[in-house]
Design a protein that fits this description.
Elements: H1 18-21, E1 51-56, H2 64-74, E2 77-82, H3 86-95, E3 104-109, H4 113-118, E4 122-123, E5 147-159, H5 160-165, H6 174-177, E6 186-189, H7 195-208, H8 213-222, E7 226-228, H9 231-238, H10 243-247, E8 254-258, H11 261-267, E9 278-295, H12 301-311, H13 314-319, H14 321-324, E10 327-328, H15 337-342, H16 354-373
Parallel strand pairs: 1-2, 1-3, 6-7, 6-8
Antiparallel strand pairs: 3-9, 4-9, 5-8, 5-9, 5-10
Helix pairs in contact: 8-16
Length: 374
Amino acid sequence: MSTTSTTRRTKQLAATAVAAALGVTALAGCGSSDGSTASGSGGTKGSGSKTVTLVSHDSFNASKDVLKAFTEETGYTVKVLKSGDAGAALNQEILTKGSPRGDVFFGVDNTLLSRALDNGLFTSYEAKGSDRVAADTQLDATKHRVTPIDTGDICINYDKKYFADRKLAPPTTFDDLAKPAYRNLLVTENAATSSPGLGFLLGTVATYGESGYQDYWKKLKSNGVKVVDGWEQAYNEEFSGSAGGKKAKADRPLVVSYASSPPAEVLYAKPQPTEAPTGVATGTCFRQIEFAGLLNGARNEAGGKALLDFLISKKFQEDMPLNMFVSPVTEDAKLPEIFTEFGATVDKPTTVAPDTIAKNREQWVQSWSSLVVK
C-alpha cells in the first residue's frame, strides 16, 4: 500500500499480517485443474473455469487440506496470487480496475477500506453465513461490497525477561511509553510504510484526539522512540524478546506488534516453553479488521462467490489462527488452545471509523512523518 506494508494483518495483523512477520511460510497456491497460471484477468480461461484466483498480500496462508476440502465441496481449485504487502496489492488492483488479475481480493483492512470502496473495486455479494459474522466487524453491512474475514489487535509487545531482570514493570498504556523509565526502549514501524505502524498511529489518534496526538508523538520522540521501515525489521531485528531479536542481539524490549505474537513465539520455539517470553500491553491496542471482496469484472464470478462463502465457513475460520495468527470473525469458530493460553485478550481496543480514516489518513501520516521521521 502507499501508506502501509505487510505485517497481518498482516489484520495482521496481519492482521493483518502476522503470519509473514512471524516467519510462517505462506501458501503459494494449489495447482489448477486446467494448468493455467495465476496471472492476468483472474488467471482463468473463461467463465466456465474451475480455477478461482485469490489476490492477496503475502501473508495469506491456509492449510492444504482445508483448500482441498473447498475443491471437493465446490469443484473449484484455488490459486493464490500474492502481491507484496497489503497496500501494494491493493494499489495494483486499483490500477487494473475493471480488468482484475483475480476473482477475489483478500487483505484490505479497515485503515484502507475507504480507498478500495471509493475506487469501486468490488461487486456487492452477501456471503452465505454472514449472519454468523460479528456485527462490529461488518463495516459495509448495507452494501456487502466486502466480507469481514479476520481481526487482529496491534499492540505493544514487551520482553518479559528484560523487565523482570531489572524489576521494572512493563508499560500498560500509551501514557506509560512516554515516561522516563522507558526511555530508548521502544521501536515502532514507520506509519507511512507499515501496516502495524499506521495502526499504532491511529491508536494514538483515537486515544489523544486530533488535537493531542502530535504532542504525544513529540513526547515519544523525546523519549527515544526508534522508527524502522517495517514489522520484520522491528520485530525480528530490533526487539530483544523475539527469537529473531535474540539472535540479532537486539536491544529494544518494546515493539509495536500484535496481541497474537506471544503464541507464535511459543509455537515455533524448540523446545516449546511453558510460558511465552513476550507479553502484551493491552492498553495500547488498535483493532484491525481484514476483508475480502468479489472483484468487479471477475471472470469467475461464481467461483469467487463460492470462495467468499468458504472464507467465513467454520472450517476456514478455525484454520486461520495458526496459519495467519489472526482471530476469526464468525461466532461459532473456536480459537486453538495455544491462542487462549498464551495470547492476550483485548477487551477494549481503540478504533477509528473508516470514514474518519478516509478523510484524515494522509494528513495524519504526513504530520506524523514531519514530527517523528524528518
